[in-house]
Design a protein that fits this description.
With about 350 residues, the chain is an alpha/beta fold. About 50% of the residues lie in helices and about 10% in strands. A hairpin with a 6-residue loop joins strand 4 and strand 5. The longest helix is centred in the last third of the chain and has 21 residues.
């Protein structure tokens, strides 16, 4: 027991050293040091197991927070155009809105303006598979910022966003803090994905937290229940997606700029499959492009196997299955290549 106590004392001293060397807000540093002093008293009295776990976990999270670290924006319209074109076919109106967005950021930076301006928060609304989430990744890449994705689908409590108080040993921060710690910068692109798909019973509370996150008058001092110290989110860029806006509170919509995602035509889906999806799938499967050939007459039959489909997810799954089957045949039978035709397509494509 004495050895264990000495070990804890050593670990507490290491925590003190790390806190002293860390970049922390001074008020928070004082708060953490008080916790360390209280922990030392507990160890001296022989009552320390649970107290040590609570305090050490709290300190680990506060030390992991990027209180000042930032990435430098890469504000090049030409680079942004190339990135959006690389990841998205068509969608020119949506691309133009993002390029306008980046242009405004570039002008604000060149003017060194510091008058409380906050970039508008875009909400991409569209059916499943129309590329909403991918645009967030493209914006992140274009700006050279880290991306934090927070999925809202099925979220059942506002605590998942805001965290829970550290009274209980199993308490932890919310997804906002976790995302910042993982990104290691305070100015990532934060993607609030599918904000219309939270659990119905938690909708009101979650929408309340969203208002706080998205309101420039409030998000400079967002308070996670676990960290229990104001967190400045004003340096982050928020982007949201939704399938529709029916379940989104009016107060949240008032803080968002809605962009409607158009549906893909059959022709656009074929081009996307041929130029974007299939080359990536072949690369992942270890196949050369000349080893997997699909006859032009087959493409129309796989763009809408279940009737009208606005997105490309079903098409991608269909191609994934075809590529896997082709890879197996090439390996097992030592074929030089696979050519999918109307005559043999039932072997490679699902039967709906």
């Amino acid at each position: 027991m004495q050895d264990y106590k000495q070990l804890l004392e050593q670990e507490i001293e290491e925590l003190r050293t790390r806190v002293a060397a860390a970049t922390l807000p001074e008020e928070l540093r004082l708060k953490v040091n008080k916790d360390i002093v209280a922990l030392e008293r507990s160890v001296a009295l022989g009552s320390y197991d649970e107290k040590y776990e609570k305090v050490s976990r709290y300190i680990e999270w506060t030390l992991g927070m990027p209180w000042t670290a930032e990435t430098t924006d890469r504000l090049s319209i030409e680079t942004a155009k190339q990135i959006f074109d690389k990841h998205h076919f068509g969608m020119q109106d949506v691309k133009n809105r993002f390029l306008e967005y980046i242009s405004v950021l570039q002008l604000r930076q060149s003017q060194m303006a510091d008058d409380g301006f906050r970039a508008p928060i875009l909400l991409l609304v569209g059916l499943v598979g129309t590329g909403k989430t991918t645009f967030a990744y493209s914006l992140s890449e274009a700006l050279g910022r880290k991306l934090v994705r927070i999925p809202f689908g099925g979220m059942g409590s506002a605590k998942e966003l805001r965290g829970s108080t550290r009274l209980n040993l199993e308490s932890e921060p919310g997804r906002i803090v976790k995302g910042l710690v993982e990104a290691r910068v305070r100015n990532p692109v934060i993607l609030l994905d599918e904000i219309d798909r939270v659990a119905e019973e938690a909708n009101k509370d979650i929408m309340g937290v969203l208002v706080e996150l998205l309101d420039p008058a409030q998000n400079h001092s967002f308070r996670d229940a676990f960290i229990d110290y104001p967190i400045d989110l004003s340096h982050a860029i928020f982007l949201a997606t939704a399938n529709n806006t029916t379940a989104i509170a009016t107060a949240v919509m008032d803080r968002l700029e809605k962009i409607t995602m158009p549906s893909y035509t059959d022709h656009e889906k074929i081009v996307i499959a041929q130029q974007y999806i299939l080359p990536d799938l072949l690369k992942k499967a270890g196949l050369r492009p000349e080893q997997f050939v699909m006859a032009e007459s087959v493409w129309p039959s796989i763009t809408r196997p279940l009737g009208y489909d606005a997105g490309i997810r079903t098409l991608k799954r269909t191609l994934e299955g075809a590529v896997r089957k082709a890879a197996r045949i090439i390996v097992e039978k030592n074929y030089p290549k696979i050519v999918i035709t109307p005559e043999n397509q039932k072997i490679f494509l699902p039967r709906y």
